[in-house]
Amino acid sequence: MKVVYASRSGNVQKFVMKLGRNVDSKRIYDGTEKVNEDYLLVTFTDGKGMIPKAVETFIRANRDHLKAAAVSGNMQRFADSFCGAADQIAERYEVPIIARFNGEGGGDDVDDVVDYLEEHA
User: Fold this and answer.
1) Most exposed: 19, 49, 70, 89, by fewest CB within 10 Å?
2) What is the DSSP letter of 9?
3) What is the dihedral sign for C-alpha 90, 35, 106, 9?
4) pLDDT tens track for 1-45
5) Rounded to whole angstroms, how far apart are CA atoms 121 and 100?
6) Is 14 exposed, middle or buried (0-12, 13-18, 19+ CB in 10 A)?
7) C-beta atoms surrounding 87 within 10 Å
8) For every residue of 21-44, which 3-state class applies, written as one string?
9) Looking at the DSSP assignment, which residues form a beta bridge with residue 50?
């Protein structure tokens, strides 16, 4: 399964790199990117709990292949809306959230995503 990700500060990109060298990934830059296969979305949360605009544009254009998501947030700055994009993605697109992680994530978060990818290879 492809991992499609959006990273503004570099945290999500670091998280995706922790998934291993064999992960097939694609980065969202402006939302016009296309995929023709199932994917796991990894994204950051924008502002106070929002889906980043480019990510929303991408999802709408590639909705049929979205299977799950993992979402990064900033617990220190936005504790009240931590990973709010996860709630919106799950509700709007009816997909499971595999992980909610702070910054670039840690071992358990990475393990959860790797396990999901292995189960859905």
Assistant:
1) 49
2) S
3) negative
4) 999 999 999 999 999 999 998 999 999 999 999 999 999 999 999
5) 21
6) middle
7) 16
8) CCCCEEECCCCCCCCCCCEEEEEE
9) 46
